[in-house]
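Exercise 3.2. Students should predict the tertiary structure of the chain below and write it as structure tokens, then compare their answer with the key that follows.

Predict this chain's 3D structure.
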Amino acid sequence: MLTALVISAIFGWVVILALVIALLALARQVGVLHMRVAPAGALTTSGGPAVGNKAPAITAITLDGASVSVGGAAPGSALRLLMFVSATCPLCKNLIPMAKSFARDERVQLIFVGDDTADAQHAMIERHGLGGYQFINGPDVGQAFEVGKLPFAVLLDADGVILSKGLVNSREHLESLIIAHEMGVHSVQDYIDGLKTELA
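Answer key:
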């Protein structure tokens, strides 16, 4: 009886040790996979002013009737994020709370831009709690940046230079705009393509 208990205990410890080894091997494989999967970044588009160039200076009117300058120099201001959205875009509705959180965490001035009826925009502002943000409504800004699909974001510095831009549909995409700027590249995709070229 005692022999059976000893053998059972030894067998139990062998199984536990095997499970620990398997778990460590699995964790290593997950780490390798994580390193091989490229980070997702905002999808850059070829149209509109290029990254590194000054954004067109446009005087626009917010829904509140205030005049605001989009692009151009804004001395002493923080980074500015132009967030192009629509009241009829499901992705935009999901992204708005993320954009608000992102702007707060990164200390970025968030400006919403749309081109819908004023009633639709006011309803969206009320629904998503955007009363404290500048909201430009009209086609001029979108046409100047050649925005064809939504949601779209453009990151500007205090001098009005376009730091990064692209189609965004997640918090990760928004963060990639800041990362691209900090790394001194046009987009995360450009950085990845550069790495592939170096490794080839």
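Discussion points: Residues 1-37 form one domain. The longest helix spans residues 2-36.
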